[in-house]
Amino acid sequence: MADVLNRTTLEFRKSVHTPDYSWQEWIINPDFSAVEKVPRKYWTVDGDKVREMTAKEKVVVNAADLYAYKAAKLDSLRETSMQQVGVATGKYKTAKAKIDAAEDKAAVDAVTLEEEGV
User: Which residues, in sequence order, are CB contacts of 43 under 8 Å at separation 6+?
Assistant: First the structure.
């Protein structure tokens, strides 16, 4: 039994049956000493070694994270805005219907008064 780390996804599996894992896709018994105190998002694989990303590599990861955060925030704001527009539209339609009804009643009352000679 051995531990393995996927070279692409950095998925780690403990105590696996090694023949089930291709060395092209997995590092068998990886050495994590170079990344012990490093967040996994800053790990990278060079050959059979796991190492900490360079500052330039981290900038790319951070930019991608920031973009994803901003995109999610924008989606959330759009959703909230659309909900508020929906509520406002509903209130507008309700108010307009009341005004239309009042205008219709006023028109009917005016005709009635006119017919009565008032």
Answer: 10, 35, 50, 51, 52, 53
Q: How far is CA 53 from CA 1, 31, 60, 61, 99, in A?
A: 29, 15, 10, 10, 66
Residue found by looking up tokens 């012990």 in the block: 36
Domain that includes residue 8, residue range: 2-51
What angle is formed at CA 37 by the lines to CA 31 and CA 40, rounded to 5 degrees? 75
Would you say residue 36 lies in a domain? yes
64 found inside a domain: no
Does residue 75 fall inside a structural domain?
no
Q: What is the pLDDT of residues 67-118, one digit of tens each?
A: 988 988 888 888 888 777 777 777 778 888 888 888 778 777 777 777 776 6
Per the structure, how many domains does the chain have?
1
